[in-house]
Amino acid sequence: MRIKTDPSASHEKELINWWSVVARYFGQTSPLLGFDLIYEPADKLNHNMASLNRVYDKTIRLIHAIDPQRMIFVAPRMRAAPEDLSALKLPAQSQNYVLAEWHIFPWGPPEKRR
User: Fold this and answer.
1) Would 108 be classed as within a structural domain?
2) Which parts of 2-109 are beta strand (E)?
């Protein structure tokens, strides 16, 4: 996903267009299908919260214009770090159908065990 390494307007548009195709394809299918917009925002997108929030806002609005009850998952910056959840700015009219995701992966014990 090129928007992670270059959050430019052209890559933002590319991502939004891709989700438009997906939303139109799945349309009003099973509500059990949710869309995870950007799994683990990383690279340059980590340092551009305004761009991340803008692309989330535009994409959520577009998807919900096509399918108003589609569940959408969004992740905060820094590979879905929970401490950045409060920095997410999401469209108010979509709040019942947008879920924030976060995770922390254990990387093993801090010391080698003998």
Assistant:
1) no
2) 35-36, 72-74, 98-100
Closest CA to 77 of 59, 105, 93, 100: 100
113 lies in a domain? no
Which of the pair, 43 or 73, is modelled with greater confidence?
73
What share of residues in the chain are helix, strand, coil (percent, to 5)? 55, 5, 40
- Domain residues for the domain of 88 are 2-100
Whole-model pTM?
0.85
The CA–CA distances, whole Å, from 104 to 54, 81, 83, 107 equal 25, 7, 11, 9
Any domain includes 38: yes
Tens of pLDDT, residues 9-51: 899 999 999 999 999 999 888 888 999 999 888 888 888 889 9
Residue 39 lies in a domain: yes
CB contact set of 71 (below 8 Å; sequence gap of 6+): 31, 33, 34, 35, 97, 98, 99
Mean pLDDT of the chain: 87
